[in-house]
Amino acid sequence: MQNTPKGLRLHIGIFGRRNVGKSSILNRLTGQQTSIVSEFAGTTTDPVEKPMELLPLGPVLFVDTAGIDDTGALGEKRVEKTKQVIQRTDIALLVSEAGVWGDFENELLEQFRSLKTAVIIVFNKSDLCQPDAEQINLLEKSGIKFCIVSAQSGRGFDDLRSMIINSAPEEYFANSAILSDIVGPGRFAVLVVPIDKEAPKGRLILPQVQSIRDLLDGDCAAIVCKERELYNTLQKLKEPPGLVVTDSQAFLKVAADTPDDVPMTSFSILFARFKADLNEMVRGAMAVENLRPGDKIMIAESCTHHPITDDIGTVKIPRWLGQYIGGNLSIDHWRGADFPSDLSKYKLIIHCGGCMWNRRQMLNRILLARQAAVPITNYGLVIAYTLGIFERALRPFPSAHQLYCDLKH
Protein backbone atom coordinates (compact mmCIF):
# COMPACT_ATOMS: atom_id res chain seq x y z
CA MET A 1 0.00 0.00 0.00
CA GLN A 2 2.91 2.35 0.61
CA ASN A 3 3.64 2.27 -3.11
CA THR A 4 0.18 3.46 -4.16
CA PRO A 5 0.75 6.68 -6.18
CA LYS A 6 -0.03 9.88 -4.33
CA GLY A 7 -2.57 10.87 -6.99
CA LEU A 8 -4.70 7.79 -6.23
CA ARG A 9 -4.84 8.38 -2.47
CA LEU A 10 -7.59 10.16 -0.56
CA HIS A 11 -6.04 13.47 0.58
CA ILE A 12 -6.84 14.46 4.17
CA GLY A 13 -5.55 17.94 5.03
CA ILE A 14 -5.10 19.26 8.58
CA PHE A 15 -5.55 23.03 8.88
CA GLY A 16 -5.83 25.68 11.58
CA ARG A 17 -3.92 28.31 13.50
CA ARG A 18 -0.48 27.82 14.92
CA ASN A 19 -0.17 25.84 18.13
CA VAL A 20 -3.70 24.38 18.18
CA GLY A 21 -2.24 20.87 17.99
CA LYS A 22 -2.44 20.01 14.27
CA SER A 23 0.80 18.02 14.32
CA SER A 24 -0.20 16.21 17.52
CA ILE A 25 -3.47 15.21 15.85
CA LEU A 26 -1.59 13.86 12.82
CA ASN A 27 0.74 11.86 15.08
CA ARG A 28 -2.23 10.45 17.00
CA LEU A 29 -4.09 9.51 13.78
CA THR A 30 -1.06 7.81 12.23
CA GLY A 31 0.23 6.27 15.45
CA GLN A 32 3.71 7.65 14.67
CA GLN A 33 5.83 10.73 15.30
CA THR A 34 5.18 11.95 11.77
CA SER A 35 5.34 15.68 12.57
CA ILE A 36 7.62 17.47 15.02
CA VAL A 37 5.66 18.67 18.04
CA SER A 38 6.75 21.67 20.09
CA GLU A 39 5.21 24.14 22.51
CA PHE A 40 6.50 26.93 20.28
CA ALA A 41 4.11 28.26 17.62
CA GLY A 42 5.09 27.79 13.98
CA THR A 43 7.05 24.54 14.33
CA THR A 44 5.52 23.13 11.14
CA THR A 45 6.81 25.05 8.12
CA ASP A 46 6.38 23.16 4.84
CA PRO A 47 3.46 20.72 4.54
CA VAL A 48 4.25 17.30 6.06
CA GLU A 49 2.83 14.32 4.17
CA LYS A 50 2.19 10.86 5.59
CA PRO A 51 0.88 8.07 3.33
CA MET A 52 -0.81 5.22 5.14
CA GLU A 53 -3.71 2.79 4.96
CA LEU A 54 -6.84 3.85 6.82
CA LEU A 55 -9.26 0.93 6.88
CA PRO A 56 -11.78 0.51 5.38
CA LEU A 57 -10.95 3.44 3.05
CA GLY A 58 -7.61 2.03 1.94
CA PRO A 59 -4.66 4.23 0.91
CA VAL A 60 -4.86 7.83 2.15
CA LEU A 61 -2.46 10.76 2.41
CA PHE A 62 -2.50 12.92 5.54
CA VAL A 63 -1.08 16.42 5.04
CA ASP A 64 -0.13 18.55 8.06
CA THR A 65 0.12 22.28 7.24
CA ALA A 66 1.63 25.43 8.70
CA GLY A 67 -0.59 27.68 10.79
CA ILE A 68 -2.90 29.79 8.66
CA ASP A 69 -2.19 32.73 11.01
CA ASP A 70 1.57 32.67 10.45
CA THR A 71 3.15 36.13 10.20
CA GLY A 72 6.11 37.89 8.61
CA ALA A 73 7.62 37.49 5.15
CA LEU A 74 8.50 33.82 5.73
CA GLY A 75 5.12 33.23 7.36
CA GLU A 76 3.34 34.51 4.26
CA LYS A 77 5.17 31.95 2.15
CA ARG A 78 4.18 29.20 4.59
CA VAL A 79 0.55 30.31 4.40
CA GLU A 80 0.75 30.24 0.60
CA LYS A 81 1.95 26.61 0.76
CA THR A 82 -0.99 25.83 3.04
CA LYS A 83 -3.43 27.37 0.55
CA GLN A 84 -1.99 25.16 -2.20
CA VAL A 85 -2.77 22.09 -0.09
CA ILE A 86 -6.40 23.23 0.15
CA GLN A 87 -6.75 22.81 -3.62
CA ARG A 88 -6.02 19.07 -3.42
CA THR A 89 -7.78 18.22 -0.17
CA ASP A 90 -10.63 15.70 -0.26
CA ILE A 91 -11.39 15.89 3.47
CA ALA A 92 -10.36 18.89 5.59
CA LEU A 93 -9.79 18.69 9.33
CA LEU A 94 -10.16 22.26 10.63
CA VAL A 95 -8.50 22.23 14.06
CA SER A 96 -9.38 24.70 16.79
CA GLU A 97 -9.60 24.74 20.55
CA ALA A 98 -11.86 26.19 23.22
CA GLY A 99 -12.09 29.97 22.98
CA VAL A 100 -10.25 30.10 19.66
CA TRP A 101 -12.59 30.77 16.77
CA GLY A 102 -12.59 33.84 14.57
CA ASP A 103 -11.87 35.22 11.11
CA PHE A 104 -9.13 32.68 10.33
CA GLU A 105 -11.45 29.74 10.96
CA ASN A 106 -14.42 31.34 9.18
CA GLU A 107 -12.30 32.13 6.13
CA LEU A 108 -11.02 28.56 5.94
CA LEU A 109 -14.53 27.17 6.36
CA GLU A 110 -15.77 29.40 3.54
CA GLN A 111 -12.97 28.20 1.24
CA PHE A 112 -13.84 24.57 1.91
CA ARG A 113 -17.51 25.25 1.24
CA SER A 114 -16.78 27.05 -2.03
CA LEU A 115 -14.71 24.08 -3.21
CA LYS A 116 -17.34 21.60 -1.96
CA THR A 117 -14.68 19.97 0.22
CA ALA A 118 -15.85 17.75 3.06
CA VAL A 119 -14.85 19.37 6.35
CA ILE A 120 -14.73 18.25 9.99
CA ILE A 121 -14.22 20.78 12.79
CA VAL A 122 -11.85 19.26 15.36
CA PHE A 123 -11.82 20.88 18.81
CA ASN A 124 -8.53 19.82 20.34
CA LYS A 125 -7.16 20.08 23.92
CA SER A 126 -10.47 19.02 25.46
CA ASP A 127 -8.46 17.77 28.46
CA LEU A 128 -7.84 21.43 29.28
CA CYS A 129 -11.11 23.10 28.34
CA GLN A 130 -14.38 22.28 26.55
CA PRO A 131 -15.54 24.27 23.48
CA ASP A 132 -18.15 26.95 23.90
CA ALA A 133 -21.73 25.62 23.92
CA GLU A 134 -22.92 28.46 21.66
CA GLN A 135 -20.30 27.54 19.05
CA ILE A 136 -21.39 23.90 19.19
CA ASN A 137 -25.04 24.91 18.70
CA LEU A 138 -24.13 27.00 15.63
CA LEU A 139 -22.27 24.07 14.07
CA GLU A 140 -25.15 21.69 14.76
CA LYS A 141 -27.67 24.09 13.21
CA SER A 142 -25.43 24.52 10.15
CA GLY A 143 -25.06 20.76 9.72
CA ILE A 144 -21.26 20.97 9.99
CA LYS A 145 -19.56 17.89 11.41
CA PHE A 146 -17.44 18.40 14.51
CA CYS A 147 -15.51 16.27 16.94
CA ILE A 148 -14.11 17.01 20.41
CA VAL A 149 -10.73 15.36 21.00
CA SER A 150 -7.59 15.44 23.09
CA ALA A 151 -4.39 14.63 21.20
CA GLN A 152 -2.70 14.37 24.59
CA SER A 153 -4.95 11.61 26.00
CA GLY A 154 -6.36 10.14 22.79
CA ARG A 155 -9.93 10.96 23.76
CA GLY A 156 -12.35 11.22 20.85
CA PHE A 157 -10.06 9.78 18.17
CA ASP A 158 -12.23 6.74 17.51
CA ASP A 159 -15.07 9.15 16.71
CA LEU A 160 -12.77 11.27 14.54
CA ARG A 161 -11.61 8.26 12.49
CA SER A 162 -15.24 7.24 12.01
CA MET A 163 -16.13 10.75 10.82
CA ILE A 164 -13.25 10.73 8.34
CA ILE A 165 -14.38 7.42 6.90
CA ASN A 166 -18.00 8.58 6.63
CA SER A 167 -16.92 11.87 4.99
CA ALA A 168 -15.10 10.26 2.06
CA PRO A 169 -16.55 11.52 -1.27
CA GLU A 170 -18.74 9.04 -3.12
CA GLU A 171 -16.49 9.11 -6.18
CA TYR A 172 -13.66 7.72 -4.05
CA PHE A 173 -15.59 4.46 -3.76
CA ALA A 174 -16.65 4.42 -7.42
CA ASN A 175 -13.35 2.83 -8.55
CA SER A 176 -13.45 4.75 -11.82
CA ALA A 177 -11.67 2.93 -14.62
CA ILE A 178 -9.05 4.45 -16.86
CA LEU A 179 -9.80 2.36 -19.95
CA SER A 180 -10.88 -1.16 -18.93
CA ASP A 181 -14.56 -0.18 -19.11
CA ILE A 182 -14.07 0.85 -22.75
CA VAL A 183 -12.15 -2.29 -23.68
CA GLY A 184 -14.41 -4.76 -21.86
CA PRO A 185 -13.66 -7.99 -19.93
CA GLY A 186 -11.96 -10.69 -21.96
CA ARG A 187 -10.71 -8.25 -24.62
CA PHE A 188 -7.41 -6.47 -25.02
CA ALA A 189 -5.94 -3.05 -25.75
CA VAL A 190 -2.79 -2.09 -27.62
CA LEU A 191 -0.75 0.55 -25.80
CA VAL A 192 1.69 2.52 -27.94
CA VAL A 193 4.65 3.61 -25.83
CA PRO A 194 7.35 5.68 -27.56
CA ILE A 195 10.83 5.23 -26.15
CA ASP A 196 12.37 8.69 -26.54
CA LYS A 197 14.27 11.26 -24.49
CA GLU A 198 11.29 11.77 -22.15
CA ALA A 199 10.93 8.07 -21.36
CA PRO A 200 12.56 7.33 -17.96
CA LYS A 201 15.46 4.91 -18.29
CA GLY A 202 14.47 1.34 -17.49
CA ARG A 203 10.80 2.02 -16.77
CA LEU A 204 7.51 3.39 -18.08
CA ILE A 205 5.83 6.65 -17.12
CA LEU A 206 3.01 6.62 -14.57
CA PRO A 207 -0.03 6.87 -16.94
CA GLN A 208 1.25 3.86 -18.89
CA VAL A 209 1.81 1.80 -15.76
CA GLN A 210 -1.59 2.73 -14.32
CA SER A 211 -3.31 1.89 -17.61
CA ILE A 212 -1.75 -1.57 -17.67
CA ARG A 213 -2.82 -2.17 -14.08
CA ASP A 214 -6.34 -0.94 -14.84
CA LEU A 215 -6.63 -3.37 -17.74
CA LEU A 216 -5.54 -6.25 -15.50
CA ASP A 217 -8.00 -5.19 -12.79
CA GLY A 218 -10.76 -5.13 -15.42
CA ASP A 219 -9.98 -8.67 -16.64
CA CYS A 220 -8.51 -7.30 -19.88
CA ALA A 221 -5.16 -7.92 -21.54
CA ALA A 222 -2.52 -5.39 -22.60
CA ILE A 223 -0.22 -5.49 -25.61
CA VAL A 224 2.55 -2.89 -25.46
CA CYS A 225 4.63 -1.76 -28.42
CA LYS A 226 6.51 1.25 -29.78
CA GLU A 227 4.94 3.42 -32.46
CA ARG A 228 7.25 1.94 -35.13
CA GLU A 229 5.98 -1.54 -34.31
CA LEU A 230 2.24 -0.76 -34.23
CA TYR A 231 1.41 -1.57 -37.85
CA ASN A 232 3.11 -4.99 -37.73
CA THR A 233 1.60 -5.72 -34.32
CA LEU A 234 -1.93 -5.07 -35.56
CA GLN A 235 -1.32 -7.20 -38.64
CA LYS A 236 -0.38 -10.19 -36.50
CA LEU A 237 -3.52 -10.08 -34.35
CA LYS A 238 -6.35 -12.51 -35.04
CA GLU A 239 -8.95 -9.97 -33.94
CA PRO A 240 -8.89 -6.17 -33.62
CA PRO A 241 -8.17 -4.66 -30.21
CA GLY A 242 -10.90 -3.03 -28.17
CA LEU A 243 -8.81 0.15 -28.07
CA VAL A 244 -5.49 1.54 -29.25
CA VAL A 245 -3.95 4.09 -26.89
CA THR A 246 -0.98 6.23 -27.79
CA ASP A 247 1.27 8.85 -26.30
CA SER A 248 -0.10 12.10 -27.72
CA GLN A 249 3.20 12.94 -29.40
CA ALA A 250 2.82 9.93 -31.72
CA PHE A 251 -0.84 10.71 -32.58
CA LEU A 252 -0.39 11.18 -36.35
CA LYS A 253 1.56 7.99 -36.99
CA VAL A 254 -0.69 5.90 -34.75
CA ALA A 255 -3.81 7.31 -36.42
CA ALA A 256 -2.38 6.44 -39.82
CA ASP A 257 -1.45 2.88 -38.80
CA THR A 258 -4.69 2.08 -36.95
CA PRO A 259 -7.71 1.00 -39.08
CA ASP A 260 -10.49 3.57 -38.93
CA ASP A 261 -12.94 1.09 -37.42
CA VAL A 262 -10.63 0.43 -34.44
CA PRO A 263 -11.18 2.86 -31.51
CA MET A 264 -8.12 5.02 -30.86
CA THR A 265 -7.24 7.73 -28.33
CA SER A 266 -4.34 8.91 -26.15
CA PHE A 267 -3.27 8.42 -22.55
CA SER A 268 -3.73 12.14 -21.95
CA ILE A 269 -7.34 12.08 -23.13
CA LEU A 270 -8.04 9.03 -20.97
CA PHE A 271 -6.71 10.99 -18.01
CA ALA A 272 -8.91 13.97 -18.89
CA ARG A 273 -11.78 11.63 -18.06
CA PHE A 274 -10.10 9.79 -15.17
CA LYS A 275 -8.61 12.77 -13.32
CA ALA A 276 -10.69 15.72 -14.52
CA ASP A 277 -13.82 16.53 -16.56
CA LEU A 278 -13.56 15.33 -20.15
CA ASN A 279 -16.57 17.24 -21.45
CA GLU A 280 -15.34 20.52 -19.98
CA MET A 281 -11.94 19.96 -21.54
CA VAL A 282 -13.48 19.12 -24.92
CA ARG A 283 -15.14 22.55 -24.84
CA GLY A 284 -11.77 24.04 -23.96
CA ALA A 285 -9.99 22.37 -26.86
CA MET A 286 -12.56 23.73 -29.29
CA ALA A 287 -11.71 27.24 -28.08
CA VAL A 288 -8.53 26.90 -30.15
CA GLU A 289 -10.70 28.06 -33.06
CA ASN A 290 -11.01 31.47 -31.39
CA LEU A 291 -7.27 32.01 -30.88
CA ARG A 292 -5.44 34.62 -32.89
CA PRO A 293 -1.68 35.35 -33.18
CA GLY A 294 -0.50 37.29 -30.14
CA ASP A 295 -3.22 36.01 -27.79
CA LYS A 296 -2.03 35.08 -24.29
CA ILE A 297 -2.51 31.48 -23.14
CA MET A 298 -1.23 29.40 -20.24
CA ILE A 299 0.42 25.98 -20.41
CA ALA A 300 0.37 24.36 -16.96
CA GLU A 301 2.16 21.22 -15.87
CA SER A 302 1.75 19.45 -12.54
CA CYS A 303 5.30 18.07 -12.59
CA THR A 304 8.36 20.24 -12.00
CA HIS A 305 10.93 18.35 -14.09
CA HIS A 306 13.47 20.29 -16.14
CA PRO A 307 12.21 20.58 -19.76
CA ILE A 308 14.23 18.70 -22.40
CA THR A 309 15.25 20.12 -25.77
CA ASP A 310 12.08 19.03 -27.58
CA ASP A 311 9.73 19.19 -24.58
CA ILE A 312 6.04 18.70 -25.32
CA GLY A 313 4.80 21.60 -23.19
CA THR A 314 7.40 24.21 -24.01
CA VAL A 315 8.24 23.30 -27.62
CA LYS A 316 5.87 20.93 -29.41
CA ILE A 317 2.45 22.23 -28.34
CA PRO A 318 3.42 25.88 -29.00
CA ARG A 319 4.70 24.83 -32.43
CA TRP A 320 1.55 22.90 -33.36
CA LEU A 321 -0.68 25.71 -32.12
CA GLY A 322 1.31 28.27 -34.09
CA GLN A 323 1.00 26.21 -37.24
CA TYR A 324 -2.74 25.81 -36.72
CA ILE A 325 -3.59 29.47 -36.10
CA GLY A 326 -0.98 30.87 -38.46
CA GLY A 327 1.17 32.77 -35.96
CA ASN A 328 2.80 32.74 -32.55
CA LEU A 329 0.99 33.02 -29.24
CA SER A 330 2.10 34.71 -26.03
CA ILE A 331 2.55 31.80 -23.62
CA ASP A 332 3.01 31.71 -19.85
CA HIS A 333 4.28 28.44 -18.36
CA TRP A 334 3.33 27.40 -14.82
CA ARG A 335 4.62 24.25 -13.11
CA GLY A 336 3.82 22.33 -9.96
CA ALA A 337 1.35 23.72 -7.44
CA ASP A 338 2.05 27.32 -8.48
CA PHE A 339 -0.92 28.93 -10.21
CA PRO A 340 -1.77 32.61 -10.80
CA SER A 341 -4.64 34.16 -8.89
CA ASP A 342 -5.74 36.25 -11.90
CA LEU A 343 -6.70 34.10 -14.90
CA SER A 344 -8.68 36.76 -16.74
CA LYS A 345 -5.82 37.69 -19.09
CA TYR A 346 -5.74 34.23 -20.68
CA LYS A 347 -7.70 33.09 -23.73
CA LEU A 348 -7.02 29.41 -23.01
CA ILE A 349 -5.43 27.19 -20.34
CA ILE A 350 -3.77 23.98 -21.53
CA HIS A 351 -2.99 21.57 -18.68
CA CYS A 352 -1.02 18.34 -18.56
CA GLY A 353 -2.85 15.11 -17.76
CA GLY A 354 -2.25 15.53 -14.02
CA CYS A 355 -1.14 11.94 -13.50
CA MET A 356 0.77 12.92 -10.33
CA TRP A 357 -2.24 14.68 -8.79
CA ASN A 358 -5.49 13.53 -7.29
CA ARG A 359 -8.77 14.25 -9.06
CA ARG A 360 -9.78 16.89 -6.53
CA GLN A 361 -6.82 19.08 -7.44
CA MET A 362 -7.56 18.87 -11.17
CA LEU A 363 -11.27 19.59 -10.66
CA ASN A 364 -10.41 22.63 -8.55
CA ARG A 365 -8.26 24.01 -11.33
CA ILE A 366 -11.16 23.54 -13.73
CA LEU A 367 -13.41 25.33 -11.23
CA LEU A 368 -11.00 28.29 -11.04
CA ALA A 369 -10.93 28.49 -14.84
CA ARG A 370 -14.72 28.33 -15.03
CA GLN A 371 -15.10 31.08 -12.44
CA ALA A 372 -12.78 33.25 -14.54
CA ALA A 373 -14.69 32.33 -17.74
CA VAL A 374 -11.47 30.97 -19.28
CA PRO A 375 -11.66 27.71 -21.30
CA ILE A 376 -9.39 24.90 -20.09
CA THR A 377 -8.24 21.74 -21.86
CA ASN A 378 -5.30 19.33 -21.69
CA TYR A 379 -2.28 18.32 -23.73
CA GLY A 380 -3.78 15.33 -25.55
CA LEU A 381 -6.99 17.10 -26.53
CA VAL A 382 -5.30 20.21 -27.89
CA ILE A 383 -2.75 18.10 -29.80
CA ALA A 384 -5.52 16.01 -31.37
CA TYR A 385 -7.39 19.20 -32.28
CA THR A 386 -4.45 20.95 -33.92
CA LEU A 387 -3.48 17.78 -35.83
CA GLY A 388 -7.00 17.29 -37.22
CA ILE A 389 -7.81 13.98 -35.49
CA PHE A 390 -9.96 15.35 -32.66
CA GLU A 391 -13.20 13.68 -33.70
CA ARG A 392 -11.55 10.30 -34.06
CA ALA A 393 -9.80 10.54 -30.69
CA LEU A 394 -13.18 11.20 -29.01
CA ARG A 395 -15.07 8.27 -30.53
CA PRO A 396 -14.33 5.94 -27.58
CA PHE A 397 -16.21 8.39 -25.32
CA PRO A 398 -19.88 8.64 -26.47
CA SER A 399 -20.82 11.63 -24.29
CA ALA A 400 -17.77 13.68 -25.22
CA HIS A 401 -18.09 12.73 -28.89
CA GLN A 402 -21.73 13.79 -28.95
CA LEU A 403 -20.82 17.07 -27.26
CA TYR A 404 -18.22 17.74 -29.94
CA CYS A 405 -20.72 16.97 -32.71
CA ASP A 406 -23.34 19.26 -31.13
CA LEU A 407 -20.87 22.14 -30.71
CA LYS A 408 -19.42 21.65 -34.16
CA HIS A 409 -22.79 21.98 -35.84
CATH architecture of the largest domain: 3-Layer(aba) Sandwich
CATH class of the largest domain: Alpha Beta
- Give the strand content: 15-25%
Query: What is the strand tally?
Result: 14
Fourth CATH level, the homologous superfamily of the largest domain: P-loop containing nucleotide triphosphate hydrolases
N-to-C span: 48 Å
What radius of gyration results from the CA coordinates?
24 Å
The structure class reads: alpha/beta
With helices defined by DSSP (H or I, 4 residues minimum), what is the helix count? 17
Strand arrangement in the largest pleated sheet = 2-3-1-4-5-6
Note the quaternary state here.
single chain
In the CATH hierarchy, the third-tier topology of the largest domain is known as Rossmann fold
Name the overall outline: globular
The tally of domains stands at: 3
Tell me roughly what share of residues is in helical segments: 25-40%
**Poorly predicted tracts of residues:** none
Put the structure in a nutshell.
With about 400 residues, this protein is α/β, with parallel strands linked by helices. The protein contains 17 helices and 14 strands.
